[in-house]
Design a protein that fits this description.
The structure is a single chain. With 268 residues, this protein is α+β, with helices and mostly antiparallel strands. It has two domains: 11-152, 3-Layer(aba) Sandwich (Aspartate Aminotransferase, domain 2); 161-262, Aspartate Aminotransferase, domain 1 (Alpha-Beta Complex), CATH 3.90.1150.10. The chain has helices at residues 21-26, 50-63, 125-137, 143-152, 168-182, 211-222, 248-262, and strands at 11-12, 18-19, 34-38, 66-70, 95-100, 113-118, 186-187, 196-197, 200-201, 227-228, 240-243. Strand 3, helix 2 and strand 4 form a beta-alpha-beta unit. It is globular. It starts with 10 loop residues before the first strand and ends in a 6-residue tail after the last helix.
Amino acid sequence: LAGGTAVHYICDESSEWYPDLEDMEKKITDKTKAIVIINPNNPTGAVYPKEILEKIADMARHHELIIFSDEIYDRLLMDGVEHTSIASLCPDVFCITLNGLSKSHRIAGFRVGWMTLSGDKSRVKGYIEGLNMLSSMRLCSNVPSQYIIKYALGDYTKTDDLLLPGGRIYEQREYIYNALNSIDGLSAVKPKAAFYIFPKIDAKRFNITNDEQFVLDFLRQKKILLVHGGGFHWEQPDHFRIVYLPKLEDLEYSMKEMKDFLADYRQE
């Protein structure tokens, strides 16, 4: 919308979906303005470790880039994994950190969110002026909902029971991960956060050349909706995203239908 060009760097499935730093560095040019990260990640459920974030921060520092960090899933963590905000690692780099309650508190309809500006602001005064102008002229917060924020964040250290063994989100993550890996032609890396999984499908086995066509075929035949990998700028037709928030019996039904669908599926 602002006239910029999005350049997508690779996230490596064989390395738990972490960003490929060499690919990221290679794609930076004199026209590059910022680095965008989504951590924890949608659609993979990956959580980037501190050492990866430090290298991204070094890259931004060296090339004098803004860091945009979407961290809206930072409280949806499992398996004892800890989240590090990249802004905390580089107080000298200008960072815009995006967050909210839509995911962590399952209140998407309330539209309660915020952006935090941190780091060296000396060279982005015009940019901040533009943000203030937009917020004064075009943005209108849902004022009653803003009162929720203080109380929602009041006990930040408390672990959500839904994310612990026996909790609904945790058990649904366990089920969908095991179910996908038990179906011939499918494999998946276990997500550590959020409520998404990004399985791989054997494109050659099913003659898949168009991943959007695959999800449409599944939708028409089984009335179950997925998102194709191309919707997340994945270049090969061999991935799709599942949201594992539906209750367990619905996930069990969907996996049974997926297995049945793939038993004789070949893309024309």
